[in-house]
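Board notes (copied after class):
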Amino acid sequence: MAEDAQAEQQDAAETLMQPPPTTQLAAAPLPAAPLLRRARTLLLWALGAAVVYSTLSGSKGSCPGGFSADGYVDAAGDPTDVAPQCFQATLHPSPVVYLAIAVTVIVAVTRAARATDLDRALRTLNRATILVVAIAVVSMVIATVWIFVSPAPTDGTVFFPFPFGSGTMTITPMEPPTGG
């Protein structure tokens, strides 16, 4: 009986010492592989959306007033000694949109990690991918339409399409005409 127990222990030890077959490990994908691929897809789309949104630009300006034979005239056409001011509004990307894209990615990955099954996690990441692209595209469209539909600034007041875009206002004196 003692010899049988000793032989079983020796067989068990030899079995544990043998390496597992490599064909089984190499052929079986990780259980989380689809989830990791989808998360990678989400990150790449988010990066692409942020890069495309970075190209947002536009400008609009006006110079109310002008010149006459006697010198400067204001916006009403009355002569003045002071050069009229020119206003230039320039549209830029808004940091709020970048923040919205980042928060969307973080929330989606967190929800996918907490999902109870793989299908729910994949759906969460798919929806987040669509949302990230929509945030960038809709923000670009709204900001661009806003800047081009709004009237040209005549008094230095411009309402930028916050949070879809931000901008700067440049005020310079009108340059006198050059003879030629």
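Comment from the instructor: The first helix runs from residue 2 to 17. The helical segments are 2-17, 22-27, 33-53, 95-114, 118-149.
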